[in-house]
Automatic annotation (TrEMBL):
<dbReference type="InterPro" id="IPR021858">
    <property type="entry name" value="Fun_TF"/>
</dbReference>
<dbReference type="Pfam" id="PF11951">
    <property type="entry name" value="Fungal_trans_2"/>
</dbReference>
<protein>
    <recommendedName>
        <fullName>Zn(2)-C6 fungal-type domain-containing protein</fullName>
    </recommendedName>
</protein>
<dbReference type="InterPro" id="IPR036864">
    <property type="entry name" value="Zn2-C6_fun-type_DNA-bd_sf"/>
</dbReference>
<feature type="domain" description="Zn(2)-C6 fungal-type">
    <location>
        <begin position="10"/>
        <end position="38"/>
    </location>
</feature>
<dbReference type="GO" id="GO:0008270">
    <property type="term" value="F:zinc ion binding"/>
</dbReference>
<keyword id="KW-0539">Nucleus</keyword>
<dbReference type="InterPro" id="IPR053175">
    <property type="entry name" value="DHMBA_Reg_Transcription_Factor"/>
</dbReference>
<dbReference type="Pfam" id="PF00172">
    <property type="entry name" value="Zn_clus"/>
</dbReference>
<feature type="region of interest" description="Disordered">
    <location>
        <begin position="462"/>
        <end position="484"/>
    </location>
</feature>
<dbReference type="GO" id="GO:0000981">
    <property type="term" value="F:DNA-binding transcription factor activity, RNA polymerase II-specific"/>
</dbReference>
<dbReference type="InterPro" id="IPR001138">
    <property type="entry name" value="Zn2Cys6_DnaBD"/>
</dbReference>
<feature type="compositionally biased region" description="Low complexity">
    <location>
        <begin position="462"/>
        <end position="478"/>
    </location>
</feature>
Amino acid sequence: MVYRGRPSTGCKNCRERKIKCDERLEGCVKCAERCFPCPGYDRTVDAFFHDETARVQAKAKKSNAKAIAARDIRDARHSKAASLQIAVRASPGMELTESLVDQGISFFMHHYSMGIDQPPVHSASYHKHLSTDGFHPLVATSMTAVGIAGVANLYMDPILKQEATRWYLQAIKMANAAISSPKDVKADRTLIAVNILSTFEATSNDQSLAGWSNHVDGAASLVKIRGMDQFSTPAGHRMYMHTVGLLSMNCMSKGIPLPQYVHDLNNEVMNYFSTEDPRNVFFFLQIKAIDLRAQIMNGLPFALADIIESALELDAIAIGFFKDKGPEWDYDVVLCDDQPGVFEHFYHIYSSIASAQTWNLVRYNRIYLHDIIRNSILVGFSSSPPTLAGTKYHEQLEESTRTLYKLQSDIIASMPQFLHDISPVSPSKTNYSTYSYTPDQHDPGNTDFLWGSPSSFYTSPPTSSAGYSTPSSSSSGGQKSFHENFRGQSGLVAEPPVHNELVTDRLPIVRISGGYSTVWAVYVAGAMPTALPS
């Protein structure tokens, strides 16, 4: 409302004629002279102000329209600039560039995928969605968002990050539409798209993991809706393991057990996966360990002796993980004296990254279990009166402490191969400094063979003439990848790409874990309560 000064006190007719009004109570003279009925005199406060609402609204709409048009022009210019990358010059003045969409999908397939699960070439399903490289638009949009976000993180480019966010929001809209459909909500493409979007939150949101947690909870809800029918396709098996693996980490961070429907579905999963693969056995063991930890954290009625027994039962399963599983799951222990890049006086050499990472996954879960055992015994000893009595608890406390130190040392000993500080090839087996470790060769609780002096195992450190070779050339410069310093690549792909009539969608085989699992193992080893400052 705009103030417009002191208004005239005359009648309306006189004001419109712009003449002086005598303001008589029974009616002004000017109106009487013209035989007009006098309308009277306005004495309200509203006359002091003028309503400008309509004019201001019209002005704001016009200004907003100009701002939107300017923003669209600016975004189009930025999008065009973001898509122009350095290209290989085939000839002077000529450049070959990929579209931003192709770059995003290529980055995703190289860094986040291990292959493609697709229908037969002769089927009609194979030739659908040609405009999105054969992927369903929902999956392609999600892959593009994660791929562009990865490029943006690599080059720290805010324009590319803005473009990745735009693709991410578009994928969210498409995912919501698919979830609202009774048919699409159970499709493999919907579940894998939600899992891919959780990767976007995990790699692009540096403020909070709440978005990642929400996506994981949403994917878990889809698993529940899909029910037993999801195991009818190879992709359904794989994505179930992927989703429950993410849900396990989410539940562990919240200190809650896994939902009951996961346990019910796991009974069905056991019919499809071989227990000969230690990774499958670890999948079920980790769930049991998370449930035990959640029961303790939530203060459920649980005697200390029962906690200890439950943890020991799970640890006994973990000890036998790699027994009689084949030489690909064994590793070599190499003893050395003050070698650069080696923390203690020994290090491990594994045949494949799958073997090394699976060993470390088991080790840090055993750290959780023995930490629970150790803390329970200490609480029982310190209570008044003591709730735990007997020499077996003293012996168990000592054994758990030794086991914690050994597990910590083994995780640290596996790191030089990941970091390219050693050769992926073991020194000559004729040298006493090297021996193969098999699960049934040593008692896991016995660490005497590691804590002794290195000189008790060999007379002199291994040299290049004894069979020791330098680390791979890739470690001397440039980027280093964890998986490049291993002799074999077996186990990187859990199963080959599937081509059969059951597959109706082209789907990427997404990595369940990568280098972060290795970093997490080191973190757990360094943060354990018994860790020393040195």
